[in-house]
Amino acid sequence: MVITGLLHVAIKTANLAATVAFYTKVLGLRETARPDFGYPGAWIAVPTPVGEAVIHIYAGGPALGPEGKVTSGSGAIDHVSITAVGWNAFRRQFEKFGLPWREFLIPNTSYWQLFVYDPSGVQLELTFDGAAENLPLPVIPEAKRYRAGETFFDPAAYADFAGRHAA
Question: What is the pTM assigned to this prediction?
């Protein structure tokens, strides 16, 4: 038995347009073809060294919980980690879009991390190889320091996100 990779992560959303705008406009990913499952959704392509993983986003009836509304946040999953290149560019992008984020340097490694939430409250960890960034070691301000288990999700940052950041 061998696990060969992560195929996809599925995220429920109450605001499909805002969620797609976040992944495409903020993170620079692209929307890819999605079969017609009979309910609204989108597939976001995530390039990897061995092909493409996909972030599945779905809305409408299947996204509703037992109370008839979409649950927000990551539930038992603390965060979804994706690898990235361009530490400073992502920091500027989060600032440009008015999004809160946190930063962390993994001790005794060359890994640097940025944490940000999507409009549904799913926390993402962008992990960078600091050695490949060709930058001095970042100095992280205390206010931006990531602390495991602490939330900094601000739903107001995503209010009318799709409308404000339409193509």
Answer: 0.81
